[in-house]
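hey so u asked for the seq, here:
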Amino acid sequence: MKGLHVMTESTTTTAPARISEGSGSTPLLEVRNLVKHFPVRSTGVVRRVVGQVQAVDDISFTVQRGSSLGLVGESGCGKSTTGRLVTRLLDPTSGEVRFEGNDIASLRPKQMLPFRREIQIIFQDPYSSLNPRHTVGSIIGTPLQVHNIVPKNKVLSRVQELLEVVGLNPEHYNRYPGEFSGGQRQRIGIARALAVRPKLIVADEPVSALDVSIQAQVMNLLESLQKEFGISFLFIAHDLAVVRHFCPEVAVMYLGKIVEVADRESLYTQPHHPYTQALLSAVPDVRQAQVGGRRERIRLFGDVPSPIDPPSGCRFRTRCWKAQDICATQEPPLQALANGHRVACHFAAPPTIEDARASQAAAAEAVTLESEGAVADA
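ran it, structure tokens below
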């Protein structure tokens, strides 16, 4: 890591002026009522808008300086879309994205340029996120030139420093992405994100495409970089074990909504939202297995509703064993509980054995009804 220390000290005078820092108590990133709807158009000569995919629908969260927020949920719940909205790779339909107090949600491309230095992203797929026609030196060096961070004659040496920081051979700057393994490519992506010395990195499932042993190496690298340089992370993942290891605070998404936010210990030991309970019950617990215990699995019934036509009221009610009439008519707000949780549920409570059994009974009934319907159709 010594190479990057030299980089931060030697370029202080040449780097462009930073945006207003804000007070130490102000969150680095504050998302307020963020919405992203994608139009659905009909086929034919005249393509009319016939619906909206509600990918992200009125979510709010904060990321503190030097800390990490984990964003978890099923595939298709809107996690990656949220990451792209924060980095302004997508324009939001409405809402605010405040970075150090500055609302960047509606800025034009030229106005966004100074913030591009401050906010970087690590993509999920290390194979498609790197241009196969560019060398590693060009991939990492381009941000240095675009943001005028170092003189042109020092770009190569800076690229080599960054490669060394992420654990790669500095002499491989002239190689192409196709000559590296998946784990090495992800390290190249990390080096590219680090090149402009950002304050916030959106890590969009950075280890999901890697082998387990490589996952540990990349996670250890991210953790050491965070401690060394005080980088904040919005860490998007579906691997709950990885999120628990890396993020002190976790937000759970379902069908475009945040349903629960809490610190990791509270969330993992006493989840209150039924969806969070079902999600965590599916994770194997080695510690319980070692002592001869067994966690009751909560099985959900039914399919995930379409984001084009989500259920009224609570979006999880069609799969929830606690659902009642109020869940269909009133959307539960994300409200604070006594233990620091924030939960969007009319009947939020810690899980019980009865919850697991009720869910299993509902799932069994749904399977029975489905099989009876298939026999009737036959």
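The two ends are 67 Å apart (CA to CA). Residues 1-24 have pLDDT under 50 and may be disordered.
lmk if thats what u needed
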